[in-house]
Write a structure and sequence with these properties.
Chain B: This is Acetyl-CoA acetyltransferase. The structure holds two protein chains of two kinds. Chain A is α+β, with helices and mostly antiparallel strands. Chain A folds into two domains: about 325 residues, Peroxisomal Thiolase, Chain A, domain 1; about 100 residues, Beta Barrel (OB fold (Dihydrolipoamide Acetyltransferase, E2P)), CATH 2.40.50. Chain A has twelve helices and 22 strands. In chain A, a hairpin with a 6-residue loop joins β15 and β16. By secondary structure, chain B is of the alpha/beta class. Chain B folds into two domains: about 130 residues, Thiolase/Chalcone synthase (Peroxisomal Thiolase, Chain A, domain 1), CATH 3.40.47; about 230 residues, Thiolase/Chalcone synthase (Peroxisomal Thiolase, Chain A, domain 1, 3-Layer(aba) Sandwich), CATH 3.40.47. In chain B, the strands form two sheets. Chain B has a nine-stranded mixed β-sheet. Chain B has a two-stranded antiparallel sheet with strand order 5-6. In chain B, α6 crosses α12. Chain B is globular, with a radius of gyration of 19 Å. Classes of the chains: A alpha+beta, B alpha/beta. The interface between A and B is large, with 50 and 45 residues.
């Protein structure tokens, strides 16, 4: 088999971290047993974040310093993708302003889908000598006052897979597939239906995970105690039990990020893998397993190249970009469990002409503006007649991708009148480095972050929901740029 | 160079409905109210109107499309009626149509009528509406106060003005308009407010509080125009003539180019320059006796004083606080209460402003009449958003002024 590996990795964790104690306090009258899960916090997607937008951020992080033109295929795994029939990976591809001549696919149907995407991506990379971007992303769905609501969290992670050893070369992978139904969610349903936790642990994890783990170790021809990092997202204590059973050293069991993120579903094995890779040293062996209607296990060995990978936010960086949230009602409102009065302004008809979205997809989804090759002037959006009205230059503007450019605030307001699911609605005029400007909504903004001259970073977000036709309009928003430590 | 409009057209008569929450009236009755006053003032019969322009900005929400609603409501004689819409500059746009028709000789007597029935929309503030397919995909669906509030942050940053000082100057603008509106029987808001009330009002869009925002009103206003010769032949003695009519529309530079810093309104500056040239105004601070400007928000009026060349850049805060634009100041602005208190039925506003200047020039403004003889009255409309705007300026004055 051709040598393949992880070329790069990235992650995304939403900025809002809901204190579990706040959820427990609100629900203790109804479900006092939830107290057992009251510690720590969980990552909570904002109203304008979903599996697609989080996937875009993880992909951008992963592709730091990498020419996007080298990626030949993009796989998006999610059990909470916003569209049932409109390829979600295709939206991510547009947001990344990638060429149309790449392959994209959605993977779903199981909590294992994130690792499956990676396994499939590795196979494609090995077989065809191409580079594949595999992303796992989930905005979890759980009913109010459920245990799931507390232990889950929203996040995304991405790995770029390609020929050669990369930063972590693939030693082996092994898949075990079985229709073991520990929980299920019928198509269109709001939340999972779960079976008894002890059965899931004793029959599900204990039965299937060791098979996958032994399988991958056997294929790689290494002993269990040679594993330096063991990743198996699972209920509390299960990863430790499986490591004991398989002979993996206890210190190899990785922090499951349960206290800081929560279980991010399809994304979680990849998220933990990225977390492990962040501080990995050459020679370390990482075994990552993903459970769900079977179990997927993949074994990597970290290479010397890990030291020269350009810096990225990864899990640690995004975790540091944190805002504590103690308002449980926001979780309910953002997840659609609580119908708040929206007022008349929310009635604005957000019908999307699909013809126009197709024509303008590079501007709208990719944030690609126009640059006048003669003058160097940049404008957004692109137009037939360039600004300045030079009729000799009609139709000559070049594509000018702007999503990765830093921008600065020129003017701003916090609008309490316009409808926003999380008022006030911050927006203002921003100037991009190198030219181009736009009047744009801000996201993840607080009063202390917003001032004329302040640096912003663009983020792909939900612009509006068309509630009448259940369409989601995406566009870019400006977020306060993190001040580098 | 075109010779301009100066003194080619006279205002024969004007009318204005009482603005406000006109639960009693629909758009048709508001139009009739303004029209009957204008017709009586002009002293002509309805059959003498040869062409009409109707301005409405939110047509889908009140009278519907085309010129037909005005023709039916006013029972015009199957004359050409054109509906115009140019954001908040629509009223002045209708006036421009009528004036140009007369100036061209295509009509001897023409009518401009503007109306808006905002209180039937159900909104507090202006209704949300599409700004076009592309805008809806990439633009901000902000409120009107939010769009104009951005002037404040950029203005404060450019001139190094402390937010509290700016808020105080903005408050002065609103306090003044309330004092003026209280003396106007046709005004929507007729209650005097103090600075403290304005400063402590709930925040609508940072830094604009409730009292920094103009009223959302129902109303209509109307002008009948003709040539000075015909006006005199009809027995008019003191003629108010049109000195300048200018419209400047954004071409995208503010939002797509570089160089604009968001602290002023580019189109107002362009329109003002052209209007002053057309009216032969060289020193606006001395020559313009009265101003009705587009004070949709207090910050807009403040910035407009600089855009019209009334104060040096960065100087409006001081001039406003010094009372220069108060009813008894050197350059009174919104002596009728302005959009802030007279109200802002969008399609009628431009005509309402001209109406006030017309009354003042003829000495017919009642309790709020300026005592020193006014010579030129300027009205200014600003439509859209500061970053994508339509600015209209009309200067009217006594013949010979």
């Amino acid at each position: 088999m051709t040598e393949v590996g992880i070329v790069a990795f990235g992650a995304y964790v939403p900025r809002l971290r809901l204190k579990r104690a706040a959820v427990v306090a609100a629900n203790s009258w109804y479900a006092p047993g939830l107290r057992a899960h009251g510690k720590g916090e969980r990552a909570m997607a904002n109203w304008d974040e979903d599996a697609v937008t989080m996937a875009v951020e993880a992909a951008r992080d992963c592709l730091t310093g990498i020419d996007r033109g080298t990626v030949s295929s993009l796989l998006l795994a999610s059990s909470t993708a916003p569209f049932a029939d409109r390829q979600n990976a295709g939206i991510v591809k547009e947001a990344l302003a990638m060429s149309d001549d790449i392959a994209t696919a959605d993977l779903s149907g199981s909590q294992r889908a994130g690792l499956s995407a990676m396994v499939q991506g590795l196979a494609v990379a090995a077989a065809n000598g191409v580079t594949v971007l595999a992303i796992g992303s989930d905005k979890r769905k759980a009913r109010p006052a459920s245990e799931a609501e507390l232990v889950q969290g929203d996040a995304a992670a991405a790995v770029l897979l390609g020929p050669g050893g990369g930063v972590a070369k693939l030693l082996a992978s092994h898949s075990v597939s079985a229709d073991f139904v520990d929980h299920f969610r019928a198509a269109g349903e709001a939340a999972d239906y779960e079976w008894e936790a002890r059965w899931v642990r004793d029959e599900g994890y204990a039965g299937l995970a060791p098979r996958a783990i032994h399988g991958v170790l056997a294929k790689a021809g290494i002993e269990a105690d040679a594993v330096d990092a063991f990743i198996l997202p699972a209920p509390r204590g299960v990863a430790q039990a499986m490591s004991r059973r398989c002979g993996i050293r206890p210190e190899a069991v990785r922090d499951d990020l349960g206290q800081s993120v929560g279980h991010s579903g399809v994304a979680h094995p990849l998220l933990m893998l990225v977390h492990a890779l962040e501080r990995a040293t050459p020679g370390q062996r990482i075994l990552v397993a993903g459970f769900g209607n079977g179990c997927e296990a993949v074994l990597f060995e970290v290479t010397d190249a890990i030291a020269s990978l350009p810096r990225r936010r990864a899990v640690t960086g995004w975790l540091a970009r944190r805002r504590e949230e103690v308002n449980y009602l926001k979780l309910l409102a953002f997840s659609g469990h609580l119908e708040l009065e929206t007022g008349m302004r929310a009635e604005f008809d957000q019908k999307q002409p699909l013809t126009a979205l197709w024509r303008q997809r590079r501007a709208v989804l990719g944030l690609v503006g126009g640059r006048d090759p003669r003058t160097g002037e940049v404008q957004f959006p692109k137009s037939d007649i360039p600004l300045g009205g030079n009729l000799d230059a009609v139709g000559t503007l070049e594509d000018h991708p702007m999503a990765e450019l830093p921008a600065r605030i020129l003017s701003f307001t916090a609008d309490n009148l316009t409808y926003s699911p999380d008022p006030p609605c911050w927006y203002g005029l921003i100037d991009f480095e190198g030219g181009g400007r736009m009047n744009v909504e801000f996201c993840d903004a607080e009063p202390e972050d917003v001032a004329v001259g302040r640096e912003m970073r663009m983020m792909f977000r939900v612009k509006a929901f068309d509630r009448q036709r259940q369409f989601i309009r995406y566009f870019w928003k400006a977020a306060p740029a993190e001040r580098e430590a | 160079m075109a010779s301009g409009i100066k003194d080619k057209v006279a205002i024969l008569g004007m009318g204005c409905a009482r603005f406000g929450e006109r639960w009693d009236a629909d758009a048709d009755s508001l139009m009739v109210e303004a029209y009957l006053e204008a017709l009586a003032d002009a002293g002509i019969g309805a059959g003498e109107i040869e062409a009409a322009w109707l301005s409405v900005a939110f047509d889908a929400l009140n009278i519907g499309p085309s010129g037909v609603p005005a023709s039916i409501a006013l029972r015009l004689g199957n004359v050409p009626v054109t509906k115009v819409e140019n954001y908040c500059a629509s009223g002045t746009e209708a006036f421009r149509g009528a004036v140009y028709a007369v100036a061209s000789g295509a009509a001897d007597i023409a009518l401009a009528i503007g109306v808006e029935k905002l209180k039937d929309t159900g909104y507090g503030g202006l209704p949300v509406r599409t700004r076009g397919t592309m805008f809806d995909m990439v633009g901000v669906v902000g409120s009107a106060p939010g769009n104009f509030a951005q002037l404040a942050s950029a203005y404060a940053a450019r001139h190094g003005i402390d937010r509290d000082d700016l808020k105080r100057a903005m408050a002065h603008v609103s306090v003044k308009s309330h004092a003026n509106g209280a003396r106007n029987p046709k005004a929507h808001l007729r209650k005097v407010v103090d600075e403290e009330t304005v400063l402590n009002a709930p925040m609508i869009a940072e830094p604009l509080g409730l009292f920094d925002c103009c009223g959302v009103s129902d109303g209509a206003a109307c002008a009948i125009v003709t040539t000075p010769e015909i006006a005199r032949a009809l027995g008019k003695k003191d003629l108010v003539t049109v000195k300048a009519l200018q419209l400047a529309v954004s071409n995208g530079w503010e939002l797509q180019g570089r160089g604009w810093d968001g602290s002023y309104v580019h189109t107002t500056r362009i329109a003002a320059g052209r209007a002053y040239a057309e009216a032969e105004v060289t020193d606006p601070g001395r020559q313009i006796s009265l101003m009705e400007v587009h004070d949709c928000f207090s910050i807009t009026e403040l910035v407009t004083m600089e855009d019209l060349g009334m104060c040096p850049e960065g100087g409006a805060v001081k001039d406003v606080l010094d009372g220069r634009f108060d009813a008894d100041g050197a350059n009174p602005c919104q002596i009728d209460g302005g959009l802030k208190c007279f109200g802002h039925p969008v399609g009628a506003s431009g005509l309402r402003m001209i109406y006030e200047n017309y009354l003042q020039l003829l000495g017919r403004a009642g309790e709020r009449q300026r005592m020193d003889p006014p010579s030129l009255g300027l009205s200014h409309n600003l439509g859209g958003m500061p970053n994508q705007s339509v600015a209209a300026i009309a200067i009217v004055g006594l013949e010979g002024a």
